[in-house]
């Protein structure tokens, strides 16, 4: 049998394989609430403009609300023959209210309908991500406050570089997730325009009021160009871009947690709640949650590339290719929400092993730069020469198998006679960290300022 929505032109129904490749109901049923909300706003506007009667509008709105509760209570029967959420809802509406249902689609197309539903969904999802990121930032602020003075090694090339504080390291992540949250807020602003009323692509001859529907649906204003409106999936691409950047941050953090929780590093201990054991090796405690966060990032990045690739060859306006937008966004959204929540849990729960961090901070000649800086400041050496002298001191310490601070004054003076006992004041990790008071530096006093700045904005 031919289709009840466009049967007029068709003698037969689709091939089985056509139905299978064409249907999106399996995933776009997720848009049911947005679809119904959009239809209620559209019908209300049509009646307000005198395009449909008030009586038909009342029947439509009542029917749509019935469908909403049918779906939410699990009674609704979705049909693949009806392709997508839009036609499933409309067909059910016809069963419920009869002929009036046929007036709902006046001055509308599935092209602007799907653009509306999906935009509403993405906007709501971004609002959820904003809240989740705020919790993650809060978890980091607590740890940073607790550990503003906890010394750990800072790394470059994953080689010990200079001592920093764990609080400072935590605040680096606060900056990253703070930027992600700003991107979320900007994206919400970018997409805050209502597509409904663009119709198939050219607008409509009916005297609709797009400002009215835009307002009813919580958008700032209607979109300006009907062709762009049904062609545009920038809001989905922007969501995926933001998700990918955020997931990249989460993945770097996950990687650090994996490294820090090894017995070799031993900087943190994961709580039982966020680790697993081994079925064969009884001693094991594995950072599975962190590893899965790292892996989810691959999925999310893949979704961005998939949708960019779908969109890149499409002529204006709508093409069915665009139906493939939703699964990428739904999957990425689910992965991102999980990753942020798991990371928030891990950060809140993990035990910081301050003794291990401090011991590691002092090894690997991490205060060599402090020695060089002292030579510049106290002995007037040019920095390049101070660098060279310090390099010789490191080589000597290495040869003797000791730390810089364990070299004797005679040893140091044999390298450069200008060195005095005052040098030993700067060779400890605490002195090193406390000295780095430049704006944004690792000194506990500076880290506390960073925390206060964020507390006022979180
Ligand atoms: N299910 C479709 C989608 O997700 C709805 C729009 C269909 N429009 C069309 N002209 N076939 O994109």
UniProtKB/TrEMBL annotation:
EC class of the enzyme, as a word: lyase
Keywords: Amino-acid biosynthesis, Arginine biosynthesis, Cytoplasm, Lyase
Localization (cell): Cytoplasm
Key word Lyase present: yes
Chief location category: cytoplasm
Gene: argH
Family: Belongs to the lyase 1 family. Argininosuccinate lyase subfamily.
CDD domains to which the protein is assigned, alphabetical: Argininosuccinate_lyase
The Fumarate lyase N-terminal domain, residue ranges: 10-302
EC number: 4.3.2.1
GO cellular component, one term: cytosol
GO biological process: L-arginine biosynthetic process via ornithine
Catalytic activity: 2-(N(omega)-L-arginino)succinate = fumarate + L-arginine
Any one GO molecular function term: argininosuccinate lyase activity
KW Ribosomal protein (keyword) present: no
Pathway terms, separated by semicolons: Amino-acid biosynthesis; L-arginine biosynthesis; L-arginine from L-ornithine and carbamoyl phosphate: step 3/3
Protein's name in the database: Argininosuccinate lyase
Domain Argininosuccinate lyase C-terminal: 365-434
UniProt-listed PROSITE patterns: FUMARATE_LYASES
